[in-house]
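Memo to structure team: turn this sequence into C-alpha cells by end of day. - J.P.
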Amino acid sequence: MALFALGDLHLAFQSDKTMDIFGKVWKNHEKKIEKNCAKMITDEDTLVLVGDHSWGKCLDLCEMDLEFIERLPGRKILIRGNHDNFWNAKKTQRLNDIYKDRLYFLQNNFYPYKDYAIVGTKGYVYEGLDTRAHADMLIEREAKRLKNSFEAARAEGFEKFIMFLHYPPTEIGERTSRFTLMAKAYGAEQVIYAHCHGKERFHDSLMGNVDGIKYSLVSGDYLDFKPARIL
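Reply from structure team:
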C-alpha cells in the first residue's frame, strides 16, 4: 500500500491543445504516464495527482481524460490545478458524487491513508500575471481551504499529515509563506507540489528538508512522468 504522486498530466483527449511545444519530454507523454504507472503502481496503492489534469473547459470536454485517469492502477486522489476549468471550486462534492468509488477530489476535505491524512488545496503564488493585491486575495482564499482540509482531518482524530498543493508553496526566493507556516503549525511531514515546468522553473521553490519538513516537486516533466514514491 504505497503512496505515489505525479502532477501536471495536461491530458487533451478531447482538445486540440498539445504540450509538445514545451519540449521533447512531452512527446507522447500520455503513453509514458500509462506505462510508468502500470510498472510502478498496484491496485493496492494510492496515487495523488497534483493538479492540471485536463485541458477540457468543462466536465463534458474532459470525460475521456478522467476516464484515462480512472484506468490507471491504484486509488486516485485529485488536487485542483490552475488549468482544471472543469472543476468548479464550489462544487467539489458534486464531482465526488459523480465519480464515487472511482476518483476522489480533494478540496476542503481530506483522504485517509493508513494513519495519515492527505490534505491539500490548489494554492497560489504571485507570478507577475496579476496584481499583488489580487494574488494576496487568492493566497488567503486558498489558505482558508487548506485550513479546512487540516481541520476536517483533525476532527476525525488524525495527527499525521501529508500536504499537497498544485502551486509551489513559496514564491521565487521565499523561505516562508502562508502555506509553509501552516504546514509547520499542523506538523505536516511532507509538502508535495507541482506546476513548475521546464528546467528553468524546477528550482523556483523549496526542495528537500526545510525546518523538518520534506518538500518535493512532482511536476510531470520534472519526473519524466514517473510517479514519485512518497511513502
